[in-house]
Amino acid sequence: MPPRKRRDRQPAAGLPVARVCVDLPLPHLDRLFDYLVPEDLDDVARPGVRLKVRFSGQLVDAWLLERVADSEHPKLAYLEKVVSGEPVLSAEIARLAREVADRYAGSLADVLRLAVPPRHAAAEKPPKTPTLEELPPSPPADPADPAEPADPSRHVLQQSVASDPLQDHALLQNVTGTVPAGRAGRVGGAGGAGWGRYAAGEAYLRALADGRAPRAVWSAAPGEDWPARLAEAIAVTVESGRGAVAVVADARDLDRLDEALTVRFGGGDRHVALSAALGPAERYRRFLRASRGEVSAVIGNRASAFAPVAALGFVAIWDDGDDLHSEQRSPYPHARQTLLNRAQLAEAAVLVAGFTRTAEGQQLVESGWAREINPGRDEARRIVVQTADDRQLARDPAAVSARLPSVAWEAARESLRAGAPVLVQVPRRGYLPSVACQDCRERARCPHCAGPLALTSSQSIAECRWCARPAGGYTCPRCGGRRLRASVTGVRRTAEEMGRALPGYTVRTSGRDGVLPTVTNEPALVLATPGAEPVAEGGYGAVLLLDTWALLTRADLRAGEEALRRWMNAAALARPGGRVIVVADGSLVVVQALMRWDAAWLAARELAERRELGFPPAARFASLTGTPAAVAEQLAATRLPTGADLLGPIELPDGQERMLVRVTRSHAAELAAALHAAAGVRSARKAPDAVRVQMDPLELL
After folding, report:
1. Alpha-carbon distances of 71 from 34, 75, 77, 272, 591, rounded to whole Å
2. Which GO biological-process labels does this protein carry (predicted)?
3. Domain span at residue 672?
4. Which of 118, 175, 207, 303 has its CA 20 to 30 A from that of 510?
5. Which of 87, 118, 146 is a domain's end point?
6. For residue range 529-588, what is the model confidence (pLDDT) as tens digits?
7. Which residue, of 379, 414, 444, is where some domain finishes?
8. Residues in binding site for Zn(2+)
């Protein structure tokens, strides 16, 4: 449909009025604007469609959020064009987007850009129906083999089941109750066998089957087939007549969950997996299937938290501590919080899941908003966790070449001899990502930009990791030495060392340069960086966690929590009875949590310490990053809540600085509104330097 001819503004009386969100990233324009709906667009200009409107003399994209009979403005302009009659923005997602924008001091237009993928016109066209001549011939009927009757379980029930959140806690406590009549086939047997390993697991599944909205934080047992457990919860919800949304961190986890749901549903026609890797056309096509109600379950990465699902009854997030769940575009929402807000609006069930537990998840438990689902003591002892510190390595000259203490050496050798693979987690990628002077141990840096020098192989010369300049003639500025030594060892160098220490076995690496999807059940050494550990058929016979200091010594508030998350994700891949060797001091609290497989204990300890010190999530923080003048101007325009603390400034590269604003949780909404209003003042004044405003930043330093 071509754009309409420009018309003068007309009185609002007599024609319907459309309330529109213009797609402009300017904080001072974060409000709805009224436009008249002309008669020729009355049928297609419905809530949720994409528009073109004239704004400040230009045609801009916009969203139609609602239609009203009248407007308080005397004269209004007309809508110029309806880009597509497809209503891709539901009222529920529009309300959710507004809540997310308000919580994170952002604009509605920015959140809608995250919630709805870009339009692909060809995907909106209905599929071509084959003619009679194009249809393949039907096979002849066999009287001895009658057609199987249709499976009624493959159709989603149409009736909606009322949810009673007030009974969630009592239901989760009643783990010995009987299965309601008519639900035994859905909850028991294969559907609930896996959840039976947990004290409140079967009760949680029964709550979903009954149409209730239980809220839980699930700490998975080692060796748990978590995609199968999530698929069971999603299937029970769908079979109760409601929809489900599940969010995972990366493509590998998405593929595993997609496969589990396909097996559970007996095909892929009842759910879709959304990912940016699909490409714009396929991603939008799958989005439309969910928007049109053709599927009842949507899984995907962080943007899928906004996926349109009718009659939402269940939301889940796996491994919520992974930083991939945090959006990198304004207003930087976290998928966990988006799902929690959505569940609150829709009165849906919640499952925050992972092998470990974040302080945010522990806060949900301690506040009483959610209940915890933990493995029993016997399930937590399915693997054996042992420690080996660096002192043992120093006393064992035979293991120095492989950087393995004796206990780790023996565990790897026994696993290989038994025909099982061995997983070795190395925190750093590359070969030698950091080198130092052999004589004085001074860190080697580039003479041009002062960047760190690194080696990419045993035959290469040192080069800068920042400017990529070679440093073949490097001379130490401190002592004049010309020899280099390794200060940090990467996964590729570790693979060489272990290959020499354990000859005769296949050595494979998995990391940023190439991620292995799976590993066969045969003796091999598999070295991987955190997050790239492949799943082994039957599990690993041994899991070795090396260079643990690299994770524990990070200058980060979440260093201990993140270290335990990465260790547990690797240790969970061990087979029952497998050995996990962590090269670290056994007296550290993080190592103790791993040895006891008790992430809840560490999360409770972390939350108590942060509450005492006033750190997230006990308090709410806002981060302001920009030039010193721009940050000062932003703070001067902000009406900070009572009791707000200013922390900083923190100097950053390129002349930038960061200021932190800390408030109590009760004043968080007031702070977000004040920061957004101040950003609107600066954008209206056309301030030259932007300030990045981020609520609840993952990094404070």
Report:
1. 7, 9, 12, 40, 63
2. DNA recombination; DNA replication initiation; DNA replication, synthesis of primer; double-strand break repair
3. 620-695
4. 303
5. 87
6. 999 999 999 899 999 999 888 888 888 889 999 999 999 999 999 999 999 999 998 899
7. 379
8. 437, 440, 446, 449, 464, 467, 476, 479
